[in-house]
Amino acid sequence: MSTRIPRRRFLAGAAAGAGALALGGCDRLVQNADVERILRLAERLTMGAQRALLSGGALAREYSEAELSPVFRSNGTSRPAGEAYAALAETGFADWRLSIDGLVQRPLSLSLADLKQLPSRTQITRHDCVEGWSAIGKWTGVPLGLLLQTAGLAANARYAVFHCADEYERSADGSGRYYESIDLVDAFHPQTILAYALNGQDLPVANGAPLRLRVERQLGYKQAKYLMRIEVVESFAHISRGRGGFWEDRGYEWYAGI
Ligand SMILES: Nc1nc2c(c(=O)[nH]1)N[C@H]1C(S)=C(S)[C@@H](COP(=O)(O)O)O[C@H]1N2
Ligand SMILES: [Mo]
User: Fold this and answer.
1) Ligand whose nearest atom lies closest to the CA of 222
2) 192 lines ligand 1 (CB under 6 A)
3) Mean pLDDT, the chain, integer
4) How many domains, the chain?
5) What is the CATH number of the domain that holds 25?
6) Distance from the CA of 5 to the center of ligand 1, in angstroms?
């Protein structure tokens, strides 16, 4: 069964905030019950975003279209190896799903089409890699806070862990897989989005298709590409080598503030 979502309600919600969220495809039929629940909560996110600002959540600088880098280079993995990812890419990620689970009241499973129907945010920001290069890109995606709010956090939830499709180093125990984590302050920050577009186009494979994290107050290695699963946890000590990310496990700082 599908339900039509009244357009009026979302326009009211979006108009209420500065930095209002854009509304993607509101007049399309909503087929996933998760999408419907998220849309209902969209208004509250605007409130949440304003609260984050008032509580000291400074925004990363945003740039103009004129400042966009001509090419947004790729770094790290530029195409995950293996048949599973190849099969997903072949059909334009039609069979890919993002799952949001762990310490949530109700896990979510969302297709790319589902995500594109949700309120989106577009931001032009500068990406700084520890290897000494920067690029300015325009990202469009769904605010992570909206999804977490819909899933409903358990009382002991503290971090969001991003599990990626790429295995950076071959390893028997899975510790070669790329992953990242952020705390809930960053997760609910208004510029923290799950991006499916770069510079107005579908996210290229080289930059993390179909979906990558943008957490704009931190360095490049936190911007997890090839997202498959977001796990809400109380502690990341039990995940991989326990430092909260692939590069953190190899000596980088967990909080990579710019
Ligand atoms: N899954 C995954 N995410 C990743 C990486 C990676 O190798 N795999 N590299 C990180 C690093 S070090 C940087 S600088 C950026 C590069 O993003 P880009 O390829 O869009 O330039 O992605 C980050 N996220
Ligand atoms: Mo990087």
Assistant:
1) 1
2) no
3) 88
4) 1
5) 3.90.420.10
6) 36
